[in-house]
Amino acid sequence: MAIQRLSRFGLELSESDRAGNATDPASSATRLRVRNALTAGRDEMLSLGLVTHAILYSELLILHSYLLDDYCSLPTALVSFTTELQHLLAYSSPSTLTPETLFRQSFARLIYTHVTQKRPYAPSTIRSFLAESIAKFPNNTIFLSLYAWNEARFRIDDRVRGIMRDTVFSSLHQKQDDDDAIAFGDITPHVFAIYTDLKRGLIQGSNHNAIRGTFERALRSREANHCAWLWKWYFMFEVRNGGLGRAKEVFWRALGQCPWDKGLYLLGVRWLAKMGLGERELRGVYDLMVQREIRVCCALE
After folding, report:
1. The whole model's pTM is what?
2. pLDDT tens figures, 226-255
3. What was the pLDDT predicted at 155?
4. CA atoms in the 13 A half-sphere facing the CB of 66
5. Cβ 296 vs Cβ 285: under 8 Å
6. Sign, Cα dihedral of 286, 288, 291, 296
7. Inter-helix orientation angle 98-116/141-151, to 10°
């Protein structure tokens, strides 16, 4: 068991061999010895500037507190997490966010394990931790996915859309003079917003127009506007839900923004031909590929 292995910290090798499984993890002496050993190891790593190594000791300290709690409660683990995070931040460079990211991701895994093991928990505890983590790292898909997974069981308040609008996009949004020129710092939040809208059913307030609006907002950003993969995603959405007219409109817009992507041309020709696009328009796509010097292996007769 994990707690039996943790209870051997601080023992000499010979003592550990003699102790075997006889060490009582719950005894005061064992608890003190283990905490002192892990704390000393953490402080030594921090003094050497090995923050990522110190994180491992901090994770063990949290796990030790969590497993020794009578109910393996998340609040106990969260108190230990907060204490350990303060130690790590005191020794970390303010410009370096990687240690805190790794540490928060580790605790997020503990939360996921706790919930999937059907142990009691307060949803607000998880929500508060994840909201704080998302505010600090809005592009981290681990925190975003876990937040959406946690909120999937609560269908009254659409908190996922709320945190995307109020926290993620507001932290990335750089308002310019022209309202139509919106710039976001990363494509990840947009992809996640589209994904959650697609996963959200009609019962939960999603519809084709809402999803279409999420696509349009993403494609107004500087980075996503020239992302061929995102345009293909939007095109296939319209193929399945919008009909020929909408699919054709998105296709021509996509060619204007990503004229270099051969796969975009081929995807459009394949699906639009099935949907009834005329021969003249298909010939126009072929001529456009030739004009833009995109390699075509065969000529149209």
Report:
1. 0.78
2. 899 999 999 999 999 878 889 999 999 999
3. 62
4. 20
5. no
6. negative
7. 30
Please, is 253 exposed, middle or buried when counting C-beta atoms within 10 Å of its C-beta (0-12, 13-18, 19+)?
A: middle
- Tokens for 177, please give them: 């003079």
DSSP H helix total and E strand total for the chain: 16, 0
CA distance 142 to 6: 27
The one-letter code for the residue type at 253 is R
- Most confident listed range (110-124, 147-161, 182-196): 110-124
Place 83 in a pLDDT band, splitting at 50, 70 and 90.
very high
Among residues 122, 132, 180, 181, the alpha carbon closest in space to that of 154 is found at: 122
Nearest to 184 by CA among 127, 138, 126: 138
In this predicted structure, what is the pLDDT of residue 176? 39
- 147: which strand partners? none
Alpha-carbon gap, residue 16 to 8, rounded angstroms: 6
Locate tokens 């270099």: which residue? 260
Per-residue burial over 35-55, b if 16 or more Cβ lie within 10 Å, else e, is bebbeebbeebbeeeebeebb
